[in-house]
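Our consortium's second objective concerns turning raw sequence data into structural hypotheses that experimental partners can test. To show how far this objective has progressed, the report includes one record in full. It was chosen at random from the queue rather than selected for favorable results. The single chain below, 668 residues long, was entered without modification.
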Amino acid sequence: MPIEMDHEITQDFARAAEIEWLETNGLGGWAGTTVAGAHSRRYHGLLVAATEPAERTVLLSRLDEVLHVDGESYELGCNRFPGAVAPQGFQYLSSFRKELFPVFEYAAGGIRLRKTVAAVDGENTTLVLYEVLAAPAPFLLSLRPFLAARDQHALTRANDRLSQEVRFGNGVLRLHPYAAAPEVFVQVPGAGFQPNPQWWYRFEYELDRRRGFDFQEDLWMPGLFGRELCAGGRLGVILSTKDPTGRDAFALFAKERKRREKILQAVPPRDDFARDLALAADSFIVRKGAGRRAVVAGYPWFGERSRDTMIALPGLCLVTGRHDDAKKILRAFARALDQGVLPDRLAERGREPNLGAADASLWLAVAAWKYLQATGDEAFVAETLLPALRKVVRWYQKGTHHDIRVDADGLLLAGTPETAVTWMDGRIGGRPVTPRSGKAVEVNALWVNALRILAEIEARLGDAAEGKELARQAKRAEKRFAELFWNEAAGQLDDVVDGGWPGHRDTALRPNQVFALSLPFPLLPKAKAARVLEAVEAKLYTPVGLRTLAPDHADYHPDCAGDPMDREAAYHQGTVWTWLLGPYLTALVRVHGAAGRRKARQVIAALAPRLAEAGIGSLSESYDAEAPHSPRGCIARAWSVAEVLRAYVEDVQGVGPAPPKPKRAARK
C-alpha cells in the first residue's frame, strides 16, 4: 500500500515543506526535495550526480512547471525567497503518494496533471513523467530548468565563470556550465526551447538556516521549454549526465519499475512494513567500480562508513536475499584491514583511509557469521573471511591502533581520554563529548562474540585445535564480562569500566548494554538479561528508538537541534537513535519468547507511522528524546532501516530465506 497524503497536508505549506522525498540511483546520487517543492537543504536537487558514493554534484536543482490555460498561467513550482514563498504551486497539489516512486497530482485551471519522478539504477539519470488525467482543451506546459552545478556541500553564487552556452536540438538541451563539472542533458521530446539565460537570486533553504549554516543560493536558468499537451497525453523528460538521444523515458521507467518489484518479491514477509523497508534498503546499496558494492551510510550527506556498513549488512543484504552484494562488500573490507583495524572508509582516489573505530572490525566478525548462516558459503568464508578474522583477533591481542589491546583479564581496552573510538563518537573542540575510553560494554560484548565466532569457524573450516583455544579464551572473557560490568544495585550493565584509571566505572544508563543480549552469542543468563531489559525499557525506550542517556542524568540533552556545536553536544547524550531498536527487538524476543514477540509487534506498530514523515518511506537517523520526538539528522540512515528490517524479519516474524546447501571448503 502506498504512503498517501491528501490536500490537507499537500496544500499546507508548513507541513508539506517538512516532509522530504528521495529517489536514489544505485551510485550514491539522487533526486529529492520536499513534498511542497521548496528546497529546504543545499542537498536537494532533481539531478544530483555521483562519481563516487560520497562525491556528488548538484547539477540540475529544479525543473519548475507552468500551465498556460485560456490566457491564464498556473505556476506549479514552489520556492523560498527572503520574506516570501513564490510561486506557491503547493496550493495546486491535490495529493502526493509514495509507493515504488513519488507521485504528485496537481489540479489547476480545469487540468489534472500527474507527475512521477524516478531515478534510474546504475546511472546519473532522473526521469520526470507527466500524464494529463483531465483537460478541457489543449494547453501549454512550460518547464523552467535551474542549474546549481556545484559540490553537494557548497552553495552557488552568481558568477561570470559559468558558461552560458546553450545548445538545443531534437528535443535535447546540452549544457556544460563549468569545465570541471559533468555535462548536463535535458531531453523534452517534442518541445521547443526559448533561450533566456539569467541568474535567479537568493533562494533560501530553511533547514540549513536552522542548522546554523549558510542558507541562500543563486541558481542559473538557461531558458524555457514549451510543449502542448491535451487530455490523455503524456510527456517523459530525461535529465542525465549522458546524451539521452534516442532513449524513451517511459521505457526506462518500465524497466526500473520491474527492478523494484523484484526487490519486493525477495523479502519473506509480504506485508507493507517489510516491503517499505526493503525498498528503502535498496537505496543504500551502491556500485563502486567494476564488481564492487558499497553501503551509503545515510542520505543526504554521508558516504561509506565501515561501522555502519558492517552493522547494516545483515539487514540490507541478507534478509533481502542480496547475498552476492554482501559477498562483494565483505571481500572489500576483509582486504582493507590495517593491523586488524578497519578504516572508517575504504581508501579511494589516493586518499589515505582514516582509522577511527575500535569496534568496526568486531562487527565484521558478526557480519561474517551472519553471512555464513544465511548462505552456507563455506568456501568464501574459509578463503577470505577466516584469514581476516584471524588478523583481527591476533592484532587485538597483540595491541594495535587506538591503544586497542587485551587486558590481563581477557577483556578489551580501547582508546584514550582524547579519542572517541566507539559509535558514540561526537567531538567538540577535538575532544569526546561522551568519553568512553577503557572497557566499553558493547565493545567487549563484541570482543567475546568475535572470539566465539572465530572459534566456531576454526572448528568447522580451519584449525580445530585453534578453535578449542579460542573457545577457552571466549569462555574466560565471558565470565569476566559478567563479573566486571554487572551492577547489582541498578540491575544493569555499567557502560564503561577502567576508563581513565583502573577501577573507574561509568554507571550511566545507556543503551550499549543491550548488545550483550542481542549479539549472536549472548553474555548474560536470562534473569539478568530480563533486568537489563527492564532498565532499558523504563528510561531509554521511546516509540522511535532508544535514548542514548537516561533522562535523570545530569548530562542529558533532550533536543538535538540548533547549530553544529549544540547538536554535537546532544548527539549521544540523550538523542534517540532508531537503529538501536534492532538489538532491542532481538533481545526482547530472546528473553521473553512469545510474550516478547507480541510486545515487539507493538513496537513495530508504534514505529510504522514514522515512514510517512521526514524522509518519506525511510527511517531517520535520530529523534529528539522527548515527545513529539521530532526527526533529526539524516532523513534516511542505513543502519536505522537495516536493523529494524533485520529484527522484524528474523525475530518479530521469525522467518527468513532458507540457506542453500553449504558450499564446502577444504579444511586448512
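The partners drew two points from this record. Residues 456 and 489 are 35 Å apart (CA to CA). The mean pLDDT is 94. Both points have been shared with the crystallography group to help prioritize constructs.
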